[in-house]
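Input set for joint prediction.
Command: fold jointly, output tokens.
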Amino acid sequence: MSHATAHHGGSDDGPLMAHGSVLNLGIPNGKIAIWLFLASEVMFFTGLIGAYIVTRFGQAPGNWPQPHITLNVPLTAFNTFLLICSSVTLVWGLQSIQAGDRAKGNWGLFLTTVIGAVFVGVQAYEYYELWGHRGMRPDTNIFGSCFYTMTGFHGLHVAGGVIAMAIVTCMGLAGKFNPKSYAAVELTGLYWHFVDLVWIILFAIVYLM
Amino acid sequence: MADKNHQVPLWGLFLALLALTAAEVVLFEVWSRNQWMMPKYAMVLLLLIFTLPKAMIVLIYFMHLKFERPLVVILAIVPFIMCFVAVLPILTDIVTLRSDSYNNVDGLREFMPGSDHSGHDEHDDHAADDDGY
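tokens >
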């Protein structure tokens, strides 16, 4: 047992928890927490994607809608482009903050928030077109239920990310970040990039296969 | 997002992601209009070849795993490996569904209601019938 865990007096080893002191792994607690959260998210989306793959490829040929006929692939490709752009602007913003350029950093955060919001808007428009005009609803067929479940949960994640990015942007505008203090940007960024990563996979699997 | 401020080749990665996405869409659009060109599974494999590098770029560079401490890398990679391993066995269900053998109960007759090994006796089955089931 390390000194840190054995030391229940805990004056120099960081804050005490109910059952002892915090392990000192040399990694910020926030970073460990966000990676554990992302690990749970990996399992969540793997469940959805795994079920979809089995359902989709288990169908006999001709029993599954053709994506390029049913879905608006060019529009979604544009949405994919948007999400990639948002990841780039976020990295640009973070690097600017780390370099001490607060104005560029704030622009990076702001652009990320706006692009993320546009992504959600485009997805809402896609749903409106599919549901309202093409009559594809979750109860239409198993493709509909799979499609809305997977893209819907991802869209909710993006919407949550937009809210988080908006808060971080406001913090940036309030001057909360500098080259030595930018944990909120870093942790929110990890979540944002993960959502981007999931979309890259979903786009290929749902829209192109 | 590691301990030191590592700069990533941002614009090069951006262009790589765009090029790979464009290649995916072009491949799909061309294939969907000329499906005689190659079988579906070949197209799926090609799409995976384009998709995986994109995912790796985001994971390694944008999420800074390349510059992280080993513990964080393990924390990040293990769930992906475990999920990949977990999905592999259920992929066999694709074959089951394709062959329609999930409806095939020939090999399960002895476990069906009414058989000697089913754990139900005839009396229970008749009782269920009487109840309208």
